[in-house]
Amino acid sequence: MTERDPLAQAEAAVREAQTDTVAVQLALAAVELAKAATAQQQAAQPHTCQQHQHKPSRSAGEWIGIACAVCVGSIGLAFASIALAILGGVAAIVVLVLRDLWRDMQKKR
Hints:
Blueprint lengths: L5 H11 L5 H23 L15 H49 L1
Helix pairs in contact: 1-2
């Protein structure tokens, strides 16, 4: 048997049997049923579009993960903005203090 299809192999093995017993009849019926199921399954497959590929939609878990990542990123961005605002305020105070010290040093000379 050089055929690779298991249904064809089973059908060939059943037909080679010499006696026509109930077991052989059941095997033939099972082979025919399997063929019918395979044909029905192939006929029920949806038509696939050849021009472009459709990606499977995301599951609810993936959407929840995306939402959590967006929330964490937004919180991180908010903290970074606050840190930059504080840094700007501190830099302005330092510049004003240094300018005042410079003026005092210039007046003493």
